[in-house]
Amino acid sequence: MASTFNINKPGKHFYDLSAVAGEVAGIQGDVLCCINQGEGPTVLLCAGIHGDEYEPQTVLRHLAETLETEQVIGRLIIIPAINYAAAQSGARVSPADGQNMNRVFPGKADGTPTERLAAFITREIFPATDLLIDAHTGGNDVNVVPMIFGFSSDECVVSDPELTRIMEAWGYRYIQHVTGIDSTICGAALAAGIASVEIEGGGGCLRSEELSTIHDGLLRALAALGVLQPLVEPQPFTGLHLSAGPEAQLVAPQMGVVEHKVNLGDSVTKGDVVALLYPLAGKASAPRELTAPVSGVVLRQARNAYLKEGQLVMNLGVIVG
Ligand SMILES: [Zn+2]
């Protein structure tokens, strides 16, 4: 990749990520698309850091194929599935090294395949990037409401108010304000002075509505930044700004199977019984009542009934502003 990848080449070009990480566990590679036209911001669109989160990968692959150079003002770099070996294996992590890609940034150029792919992004793409959009979904373990997170600092080219405007343009109901983890792609971007947006695009089941929300939201956000011609109608923001710290997480106090008493997107009050945890052995059958640790909106819930001690039951978002 280093010898052929040219981020400054005008027009639309595809490259092969296998030049960075090689054939991984028998999986050959995947594409990176770079569309470059005229003066304007550079945006990196990245999906598939967790291989089993398929909605944004599907949308980004579609955009890489269909967006035309003339529609771009500046530069769009589209990576549909950065963790390609994980994606093609139906797994969250790479079969080659088992590493969570969103905990290896900034990566290592001479490391494992997962670390090499991370290092390629931070070394080859970040220096040219004004805004990172990192797209996730619930994957195999949790269901999530579609939501969007923003990360910026005073050093970023894209200012905090501009980032808020971009997030509100997306059209998601929930905007979450968080502090990043350094070893994530968004954390590494912030350390490099690059603003970023992370989305959780839905439940991991490829529902048509969630796919079109990611597609249209992405096009609105890119148009709001000015890197893409407007291709879909703008939508006024009618959603909520939320914070979701550790105090808003509810985890299983012991092993058991969980019954959810509330749904994603529901508003709950601190102390409400939001889930029941049933025992898996013994004469007693009564479930243990689990209560909301704070008042807020249900953002994530465990997808599977069986939970180990300490596994996430749900997390809540607290309304801010
Ligand atoms: Zn993810």
From TrEMBL:
Succinylglutamate desuccinylase/Aspartoacylase catalytic domain: residues covered: 40-223
Pfam families with a match to the protein in the record: AstE_AspA_cat (PF24827)
Signal peptide (residue range): none
Key words of the record: Hydrolase, Metal-binding, Zinc
Cofactors, names only: Zn(2+)
Protein name: Succinylglutamate desuccinylase/aspartoacylase family protein
Organism from which the protein derives: Rouxiella chamberiensis
